[in-house]
Fold Ribonuclease HI.
Amino acid sequence: MNVVIQWKYVSLKKQEIVLTSDWLPAEKALMIAEDFEKTGRVKELLFIDEQKTSWTKKELTKLLKELETEPHDIVAYFDGGFDKQTQKAGVGTVIYYKQNHQRYRLRANRMLDEIESNNEAEFAAFWFTVQKLEELGVHHLPVTFRGDSQVVLNQLSGEWPCFEDNFNAWLDRIEAKLAELGINAIFELISRKQNSEADKLATQALEKILITSTLELNEKG
């Protein structure tokens, strides 16, 4: 979770001045805020998150303690594949997250019918990823979504218009669920090579190799 510190303080000339920091990890922002307080010139300290919600120091400290037990610091990869011969799609997702000071990786895939193209398979993969996030209990947090589909990411971000009715149906469904969960989506286009984990899962789904697993990673912190 990243925040901006808004520090309202009184100068030596008794003038009230408001300073705003760059984006910082919330834990680091709280440490810096303690240094601010040592100056004896703090009139008000607020922390503003990526959803533009303001928190006091006490509120943010409490929130971070609550977040420790819930999934957070989430990066989700997605990919979809379509087999014209069988008219089936495979979707895959890899979700990295932190919980109780430990890093985890969730991998899952699924085979789907009634998909008409590779681009639609990519939309279905994004939707599958959002469903997995909901199952994890992710809510009211920023989530970074990474994929190699420029169509999906640019249309979800609003950079590209969407004229296809079936794509618009996927967009409406995804946007409604993200709003319901309070997820602040950050979209990042990556290369196919960087998306190899999700790509492999989508391919395995087409081969009827279905996977759902959660791995505890060694990286702590």
Notes: The radius of gyration is 21 Å. The first strand starts at residue 2 and ends at 10. The CA atoms of residues 127 and 174 lie 6 Å apart. The mean pLDDT is 92.
